[in-house]
Amino acid sequence: MKLNFRLEKNIVDKLNLKDKERIIYCVPFDLSADGKLIKNSYTVVTNDRLIIVTEGIVTHDIPLSECIDTKSEAPVDCGMLISTIDGEATILVRFSMKHHIRYAYVAKGIRLLHDGKDYVVRSRERETICEKCGMVMPKTKECPYCGGKSQMLSKMGRLLSPYKGWVVLILFLTVVSSILSMASAYVLRLFMDDVLIPKSGTAADAVKFFMIFIVIGVTLMAISQLTVISSTIFSSKISNGLRIQVFNKIQELSISYINKSRPGQLLNRVLWDTREIQRFIDDTLCGLLSSAMNFLFAFIFLLVLNWKLALLALIFLPVIVVILRLRQKRSRRLWRKSQIKNDLLYTRLQDVISGIRVVKSYGKEEYEETQFRNINEQHAKASIRFEIFWGIIIPPTAFLFSFGGYLITYFGGMDVLNGIMTPGELIQITTYCSMLTAPLVWFSNLPQRLNRLAITIERIYDVLEEDPDVVNSKTAQKLDIYGDMSFKNVSFGYDSYDQVLTDINLDVKKGEMIGIVGRSGSGKSTLINLIMRMYDVDEGSITIDGVDIRDIDTHTLHSQIGVVLQETFLFSDTVINNIRYARPDASFNEIIMAAKMANAHDFICKLPDGYNTYVGEKGYSLSGGERQRIAIARAILINPAILILDEATSSLDTESEYQVQEALGRLTEGRTTFAIAHRLSTLRNADRLIVIDDHTIAECGTHNELLEKKGIYYRLVTAQLEINDISSFEEALEEAPSAVN
What we know:
Mean pLDDT: 80
Strand content: 5-15%
Oligomer: single chain
C-alpha cells in the first residue's frame, strides 16, 4: 500500500521545505471537518514537520516534536488522524474507511519520528483502489481493468513461450487444413460448371472429381486428428507444467500470504485454474487458429471473386463488435464472482473433510449440509447468471452473422439469373461465405471464453507474481549452527503499524533452555515464528552465532531447527515416512534410533504394519501422545542445533506426558531450546524464564528468582496453583460418595 503519493509542484512549493528536509509520508484524505467529500487534500509528513494540505491550501503546519501519541481511529463510518498537541487530543484530518489502514501506518511512522527513530514504515498490504482508474481492486496485485487485453495477452504469451514448437506445429496444420478447405470449394465449382451444368461431363470426369474429393476429405480428416492429438499433448504439457509452477510458488511464498488466503482459494489456483487453461487450449486456442485462418482465406478469396458480396457478408459486423465490447466488463465481473464463490465452495469442503471429527462429535452433519447447500447454490446462481448473460447475447449475434449469408445467396442468385455469374461461382462464393460466417459466429463466443481466460490468468499470476516477504539476501551463507543467539531491539507486528513485540533484547548461550511465559496473545508464538524466520523483524536484529538470521540461507537454517508443536501435524502417510520427512535420506536404522530416543519404538512395533502403518489424515488413527512422540522422533532425526517446543505436552494425559517429557529431556540435552508452556511447572528446570507482557520482555530470570520478585510470573504461578487446587478439590468431592460406599 502506497504511503508516499506524488504531489503537484504548486503544492510542493507551498510546503516551504527547508534544507535537508524531505517528505517521508504523503497520503490523501477525502473528508472535510464536517464530513463532506473533498479533493486535492493530503497529510504530508517530513523528517521535521506534519503538514495538512486541504483542497490545495496548507491549513496545519506542526513540528513533529509537538505531535504526541499520534494514532488513527475509526469510530463510525469514517477515520480520523488524532494527535495530542499542547495537552489536548486534536483531530487533524478525517478520511473515508478506504484510507484507514494507510493512516494506521502513517500514524506509527509519526510516532517513530517523534521518538527520534529514523525508521520508515513500509506497508505490506495491497492497494484496494486502483490509483489510475479508481476501480476497486479484486484482491489482485495488478489492476485488471487498466491492463485489459494487452496485459492478458502478454501473460498468455509468457505461458506459451516455452512451447513455441507446439504452437508452430498446430499453426502449420491449421493453415494446411484451411488451404485444403478453400481448394475443395474451388473443385466443387469446377465440378458444377464443367460436369453437371453443361451435361457434357463423362463418367470418367465424375470419377476424377470424386477421387479428388476423397483425397481432400481423407487428408482433412488426418490433419484434423493430428491437430487434436497435438493440441491435447500441448495443453496437457502446459497445464501440468503450470500446476507444478503454481504449487512450487505457493511453497516459496511467506507464511503471511498463506495465512491471509483461503485454503480453497489456493487449491483452486493449483487445480481448477490450471485446468481452465488446459480447457482453453483444447477448446478455444486451436479453434481460434482454425477460425482465424478460415476467415482470412475465405475473405481474401471472396474479395477476389466478388468484393461487393464480400462486404455484404460483413454488413452487421460493426454492430456486433460494439455490442460485445459494451458487455465485456459486465461479463468479467460475473465470471469473477463465479470464481470467488467457487473458492468459498472449495474452502468449505476442505474444512468439513479436515474437521469431520469435530462435525460428528457435535452432531452438526445437518448444519454442515445446509451450509454447503447454501454456498453451492450461491455458486450455481453466479454461474447461471454468467451463462444466461451470454445465452442472451450469442443467439442474436449468430443470427446477424447468418443473415449476411442470406443476402449473398439472394443477390448472388440474381447475378446467376442475369448471366453475370455462373452457378458454380455462386456455389463457391456461398461456400466461402459459410466459411466466413461460421468463424464469425464462433468469434461471437470468443469474448466469453477470453473473459474466463483473463480472470483465470489473473488469478494464476496473482500467485506467480507475488513476492515472498522472507527471502535469502544476496550475501546469504550456509552456516553450521553452533547455538548462540542474540535478540537486539527486536520489534515486529503482523501488520507493521500494530506491534506485537517491541524492543526485545535477549542473549542466549548454546545449550540453554529458555522458557517463554505470558498471557494468551502476548506474543509468545510470534517470538517463536521470528526465531524460525517465518517472518522478518520490522526493527532490530536476531543473530545466530553472531550472524544476522537474514544473512543465513533459509534452507540451511530450517534444516538445523527442530520443532515440536502442540498440534502435531502428521501427513496422510506411513509412520516411517512421517519420521523421515525431516531427513529423506535417513537410513532405517537411524529412524529406529530416533524413534527409540522419542519413546515411540515400542508402540510403533505394536501397530498392525509397524513402521509401515498408515496413520490416516493428520495422524488421527494415533493418540495425541503417540503423535507427539513421532513428531519428537522427526525432530531428533535432523539432530537440530536449535529446538523449539510450543506447548508440546499441554493436551496429554499423565502417562503420555511422562513418556513425552522423558523423550524431550533427551532431545533438549546440549541444544539451545526455546519452550512455551501453559503448565508453568513444566518449565521449572529451564535455565531462564522470560515473561512477555505489554509486547516486551517484562521479567527474566530463573524460576526461583522470578518467584522471589513477586511480579507477573509470581501472579501467574499463584493463579495456576489456585486453579489446580480447585480442580483437585472438585475431583475429591466427586470421588467421596464412592469412597463412603
